[in-house]
Design a protein that fits this description.
Low-confidence stretches of chain B: 773-781
Protein name (chain A): Histidine kinase
CATH topology of the largest domain in chain B: TIM Barrel
Organism (chain A): Planosporangium mesophilum
Pfam families (chain B): EAL, GAF, GGDEF
Shape of chain B: rod-shaped
Helix content of chain B: 40-55%
Largest sheet of chain A: 7 strands, mixed
Strand content of chain B: 15-25%
InterPro entries (chain A): FIST_C, FIST_domain_N
Largest sheet of chain B: 8 strands, mixed, barrel
Radius of gyration of chain B: 54 Å
Number of domains of chain A: 2
Shape of chain A: globular
Mean pLDDT of chain B: 86
Oligomer: heterodimer
Number of strands of chain A: 26
Strand order of the largest sheet of chain B: 20-21-23-24-25-26-27-28
Number of helices of chain B: 25
CATH superfamily of the largest domain in chain B: EAL domain
CATH class of the largest domain in chain B: Alpha Beta
Radius of gyration of chain A: 20 Å
Largest interface: A-B, 29 and 34 residues
Helix content of chain A: 10-25%
Number of domains of chain B: 4
Strand order of the largest sheet of chain A: 1-2-7-3-4-11-12
Distance between the termini of chain B: 174 Å
Number of strands of chain B: 28
Structural class of chain B: alpha+beta
InterPro entries (chain B): Biofilm_reg_signaling, EAL_dom, EAL_sf, GAF, GAF-like_dom_sf, GGDEF_dom, Nucleotide_cyclase, Rev_trsase/Diguanyl_cyclase
CATH architecture of the largest domain in chain B: Alpha-Beta Barrel
Amino acid sequence: MRVPLRIAPDLSIECGVTVFRVGIGASVLADSTMAGRQAAESALSGLAGGEPALVVVFATASHDLPVLLAAVRQVTGDAPLVGASSSGQFSAGTLIPPGQGVSVLVLGSGRYRFGVASVSGLRANAFEAGRELARSCLAAAGPERDRHAALMVFSDGLAGDPQGLLNGVYQVTGAAVPVVGGAAAADRDLSETLVFHDGRVLGDGAVGVWIDSPRPLRVVSGHGWQAHGLPLLVTNVDGPVVHEIGGRPARAVYEQNFRYDDPMQELPTAWSQGYHSAHAFGLIEPDGSQLIRGAFIDEDGLIRTFTPLPPYSAVQIMTAGPDDLLDISEPLIADALDGADATVLLTFSCAARMDILRERGAEEAVRLQKAAGPVATFGFYTYGEFARTTGVSGYHNATLTALAL
Amino acid sequence: MAGGEVTDEVAQLRTQLVAATAAVSDAYRHNARIVRVLTVLGQPSTPEQLVEQTLIVLSQVFGADVAGMARVVGDRLVLTGCCGLAETHPILDTGWVLGGAAAEAVAGGRAVARAEPDLTDVDIPADLAELRLRSGVWVPLTGGPDADDQMLFLFSRSAALLGPTELHLLASVADRLRLAVDARERSVAAERLATYGHQLSGYLELPQLLAQAATMLARLLGADSARVVTVDGGRARLGSSAPTAPHRRSRWSRPVSELPGWSAATRGEAYRGIDPGDGDGDARALLCAPVMRDGAPAALLYAYRDRRRPFQGEAVETARIFANHLAAAMTNAELYRALRDSEASLRHQATHDSLTGLANRSLAGEHLEQALSGTDPHPVGLLFCDLDKFKEVNDRLGHDAGDELLWQVADRLRGCVRGSDVLARFGGDEFVVILDSAADLDEVNEVGRRIVRVLEAPFPLRGERVQISASVGGVLGVRGRTTAGAMLRDADAAMYTAKNRGPGLVEVFDEAASHRSLDRLALRSELSHAVERDQLRLRYQPIVNLATSEILGFEALLRWHHPVRGVVPPDDFIPLAEETGAIIGIGDWVLAQACRQLAVWQRLPGRSRLGMNVNLSATQLQQPGVAVHTLGVIKDAGVSPGDICLEITEHSSIRTDVTEFATTLRGAGVNFALDDFGISYSNLSHLKRLPVGTLKIDRLFVDGMTAKDTDLGIVRAILAIADSIGLAVVAEGIETAEQRAALLALGCERGQGYLLGPPLSDEEATALLLGAGRRSVPARH
């Protein structure tokens, strides 16, 4: 029998007259009830008897999720709960690989005010769903407003247009409210991804947390990918399938631009066969940076992306090795904690990164926690990360995003 | 080649490669930007969605934190779309003062970019300070020659200025956006026009139609307010406004010449100008479009906007088409009103009497039923009113005069009912009053009396003063229990009862009377079939010589053998037969039967001079041609008119002018007897006027003459009168030998009564005539 992970750091900071405490717990027990209870009890103990104001849960979709959530709520009570199915989780420097585990973060009251809500209908109209989600979360946070705010969002990773969801959110919140979070993931397949709201498990939906804060909340992101080759113009795209680049067959152009010394020369194929791509498209941003868009070859030999590339978008083929990805950890954490009097660092990494890291997968969790020092890190591996900071764009692939609380 | 040189060359090449890559990247990025924006502009959407989606794409491709579109309204920028501000931000409603870079962009007609440290609150309003915006670009949107000023703006938290290429690109995007929005707005306006046109035709009431038209017009033209002014006979009236006008202004009316744009409207043209306002507001931009019907303005559409946002050519075209829709809808509404009016008129015709304008039978019936189903605790009163002698007026002065009389009667009756009561004409000379709530029968009676009184005064008719009266019957109906049919039937019966009692009388029936009336009604119905069902029989009472007991003749007496009720007394059924008119047929049957029987008996030995007395009712006497008819019946039976004596009452002779009848028949030899002399008028002038040969002394006097001096005196007086003017006398009801003796002593020669012979069947009478010789007193029946 494997020894379950038990992590229960007592993390707290003085905040005026109140103390903001968080507690983290995790379990790899196979039984959903026992795992849920164990992780929740560990996390709750971190509040030193305080009442939880928010519960965040990431768990493998192989668990009986309703049972798992019920077990967590038996411990945490009626405190609002949000979360998502994951493709691996990490907390306090420890990785729980895909296929097992549950991680629970409880946030005590005192510093932030949370408003939790969820929506469905992402596939039908992601933009409207985003608008409704933002409005509902804001309403749930109550009529009083603190000076600053952020929104944490988890969405079904296989439903709808994630950027459309963010567009809808932006329409309600505007530029002042950054967005962090990620798309729910499954364990190395594309079967089903789910989000959690209190005791409910939702498909085709999204759950959000409005976070009202007395200090500015800053969302950061970084990926470590390197551009390779000249910029290219996507000349023919049909939804997720990229047909032509620069007027030529997309696959030929894609292959031609692989880095000659890439250690993983084989072409990435569908996730069902083990997705491990050292290449991706980099969507050239207004500031010249690249937004990563993961790609793979489907059964018909066509190049597909997880979210459609805009027609005639300017892209570069990106490539990354394990070190490229891991080296982003320290600057990212430093950026996230810059000026922040933080207790916990909510961090979202990508299932695609894990695929590149392979046997070095656990290093990312370790390096993140090390860089964070006394601030606990907590997060999961997603099917797409949210970090909306400048303008409306905020959906990323193969990227690390973070928010310090 | 030295290693160092190679390295330098490689480094140089690398630098060149980086620069080339950056250049390509920029070029492609610009390209990608414009393609993405053009893609959005090409997608089907509403104007609002187009602006929304374009701003999102602009935020994405230019990394703008705030992207917005604004319209210049006076000295302010009013946002028409925005991406990047919280949807509850107050500035979305208020906009901000046009100044700084925005004003420069509008004035110069070119894009302006500005970044820290040149950026001030005038460029980006202080209300957005929390976003810490550090640069911006303002791009005017070029429209048509008379288009209003609009602009696109992008604000960023980065201080990096957009380059000239990007500004050029934005300007190009802005123009396309303006064109796309305008095209979408035109298409939406066209769609709305079509929809509104269709919806307008659904409003069939003019006030609602005009109200809806004002609301639609404001929406169609993006106007702050709109009005529909109707034009009629040189005056204009406010038909509707949107938003709805305050009450004090909702009714203005003024000469059309005072309306702005009137002269253009008379030519069917729209007008654009400035409305000075009503004195309490700023001057406004105005658009007026006439609603032309039959070549002239039937209404004017007015739309108003802030004067800094005047109406453009497209708005004129839209208003013109909308005015056409409204003209068609107004025609529709008028047709509908005409149809509704004609329906109402048909309904009125169907429910009202065309002569008097009163409710007719059907409406009164409906009203009565409705009243009876109500919840008022008081009962419902009903009066049935029938004019007396109306027929005479009609016959004498003609139908037109009769109609005029009815009209005058209706007019007087209107004056004696309450507003809540219903006055109806049931046809002919019958009027009905329904008292919606009557306290009791007394009240019904009182209304009845009022009706009688109000009709007492003579009616001026064709230069004459015509006197009529009315017989009125009244009943009460209990709500929830009595039916309209029963009430009408009972009131009718009460009216007949009143009429039988004499003209100008009121009779009200309580429940018991109604029951009796019901019983009489059943009897009446059965009586009409009595002849055909062979239920009538004649009895013959001998009239004898008191001194000799010789049978001089018989009085034929009618009996009704009812299968259930047994023998119904004549006093019960004769009045009914008179009411229903059944007496005509019955009378004919009686006369014929009696005459035939007389003919049979006259063939018996020694009976050739036998006489037969037959009673006639007043109703029979009123029939046209009754004299000839009666004589025919007598002759047909084969008897001599001289052997027939027709008995009429003094009462009948007064109710009907019998002179002609009596004179004709008397001329033919028929005898007349006055049946009830002494008990009613006993007017000697009647005796002089009528060719009466016999007086009959009523049984009342005969019965009392042996006991009371008064009766004896009356009998003596009658005998003296008869003697003095040469009339025969028959005493009725002689039941005792004393009575016979007394009558003989007074000189009365003839009599009838049980003492002398009861009413007999034909067989008994025949037997009497055959067997008993000249006199007989058979046993009583």
